[in-house]
Amino acid sequence: QKEVEQDPGPLSVPEGAIVSLNCTYSNSAFQYFMWYRQYSRKGPELLMYTYSSGNKEDGRFTAQVDKSSKYISLFIRDSQPSDSATYLCAMSAGTSNTGKLIFGQGTTLQVKP
Amino acid sequence: DADVTQTPRNRITKTGKRIMLECSQTKGHDRMYWYRQDPGLGLRLIYYSFDVKDINKGEISDGYSVSRQAQAKFSLSLESAIPNQTALYFCATSDRQISTDTQYFGPGTRLTVL
Q1: Which residues of B14-43 are buried (b: 16+ CB within 10 A; e: fewer)?
Q2: The predicted structure's pLDDT at residue A51
Q3: Considering only CB atoms, which residues of chain A are within 8 Å of chain B?
Q4: Which of A14, A63, A93, B79 is least surrounded, with the fewest CB atoms within 10 Å of its CB?
Q5: CA B49 to CA B34: how far, in whole Å?
Q6: Which of A5, A65, A105 to mutate to test the interface with B (most CBs of B within 10 A)?
Q7: What's the CA gap between B21 and B113, in Å, rounded?
Q8: How far apart are CA B104 and CA B95, in angstroms?
Q9: In this complex, how many residue pairs, one in chain A and one in chain B, have their CB atoms less than 8 Å apart?
């Protein structure tokens, strides 16, 4: 079993839809939860991160962490064609000196005009 | 200018050839990483380096070697390339002072081994 599981999709939605992207994980030591966005032929870029449980909002994006269920989500409101990309979740235990992130395999999202 | 740069951006080579991919960063980060990305497999860690004298194997290091020439430079070598090393390769950096372990990625190198 992988430490982080993410449905690869693809996920196709109409413009304006609310998108929900999810990851589950098995390591209870994870404390930092990140979402990266990767456009085609580009490197992943950090979209947002959350520490421990709770919600974090940034514009149309909301990251949610439920540590009791080992489940994280990224919601995109009023989705736009420019949101079409692959979204990767990533996690770390933080200051554990490993310096490593554990990535999900990414979900490909297409937002149709 | 990009903070993390990779050269070349695209490379086609033949089986058995030696090839080097280079990564440079201006972020001042001490930690650097090499990943490969394959469809359906996500990002897999090849090697990582916490400073110039500290180099560690990742989950798929066989067939690869690395060199940390300076804090800002980290190169990945394929001593004898084989077709299943065809992939997208990314370099990343992080700062040990930042507790989140957030990593910042370069634009990638698309490698094709014929």
Answers
A1: eeeeebebbbbbeeebbbbbbbbbeeeebb
A2: 87
A3: 6, 8, 32, 34, 36, 41-46, 49, 51, 88, 90, 92, 94-95, 98-101, 103-106
A4: A14
A5: 9
A6: A105
A7: 14
A8: 10
A9: 57
Tens place of pLDDT per residue across chain A (113 aa): 788 999 888 999 999 999 999 999 999 989 899 999 999 989 999 999 898 888 999 999 999 999 999 999 999 999 999 999 999 999 988 765 567 889 999 999 999 99
Mutate to test the interface with B, among A98, A101, A102 (most CBs of B within 10 A): A101
pLDDT given for residue A19 in this prediction: 97
Place of tokens 């090849």: B46
* Cβ within 8 Å, pair B102-A95: no
What residues contact A17, with CB distance under 8 A and at least 6 apart?
Answer: A79, A111
CB B6 within 8 A of CB B33: no
What are the C-alpha distances in Å from B91 to residues A22, A86, B11, B75? 25, 18, 16, 9
Contact B31, A99 (CB under 8 A): yes
Tell whether the model's pLDDT for residue B36 goes beyond 80. Answer: yes
Are B90 and A92 within 8 A, CB to CB?
Answer: no
